[in-house]
């Protein structure tokens, strides 16, 4: 996730134009008197919305959400019943908890899978729009890179399938116990 957040940051700062905006994200900047990061939001076809910050991503509806932090790849559930227009730092996020109950695990799996599928689709779009060489260049500039550009979008697809399976198995175990 750290590498993906790096890539999104490069997409925002791209001299030829902000790729997140070109994709359809809405940019929300913090007020002048507030120290924090701009947010990018987009509505997804599933009636969820995705919000990106430099510190992570939140996929949510009005009731439930999953936050995945940039440096801690551990999905956490939250109740985003807050005005996301006032969220500029990680401390502004609503309380987040690890899913443990069967229903929460099922929800986390579905939302994580949707997030990972979105990231894979976005990366495919970037490759179509500006070429895979652009993404590889951004990854080459990242000192902690873990995957090449072609591998990264495929890895997000694999993670989507794994999230559904993993959380599905965990939920089934909770129902049995």
Helix and strand layout, with pairings?
Elements: H1 2-13, H2 19-23, E1 26-28, E2 39-43, E3 49-53, E4 56-60, E5 65-69, E6 76-78, E7 96-97, H3 102-130, H4 132-140, H5 149-176
Quick structural overview:
47% of the residues lie in helices and 16% in strands. The chain contains 5 helices and 7 strands, in the order ααβββββββααα.
* Beta-strand residue fraction: 15-25%
Major sheet details: 7 strands, antiparallel
What is the CA-based Rg, rounded?
A: 16 Å
Q: What is the number of beta strands? A: 7
How far apart are the first and last residues' alpha carbons, in Å? 33 Å
| Strand line-up in the sheet with most strands | 1-2-3-4-5-6-7
Number of helices: 5
Give, in order, the helices and strands.
Answer: HHEEEEEEEHHH
Percent range for helical residues?
A: 40-55%
Number of domains: 1
Shape: globular
Query: Can you give the mean pLDDT?
Result: 91
**Poorly predicted ranges:** none
Q: Structural class given helices, strands, pairing?
A: alpha+beta
Structure report:
With 177 residues, the chain is of the alpha+beta class. It has one domain (2-176). 47% of the residues lie in helices and 16% in strands. It has a seven-stranded antiparallel beta sheet with strand order 1-2-3-4-5-6-7, covered by helices on one side. Helix 3 (102-130) packs across helix 4 (132-140) and helix 3 runs antiparallel to helix 5. The radius of gyration is 16 Å and the shape is globular. The relative contact order is 0.14. The model has no long low-confidence stretch (mean pLDDT 91).
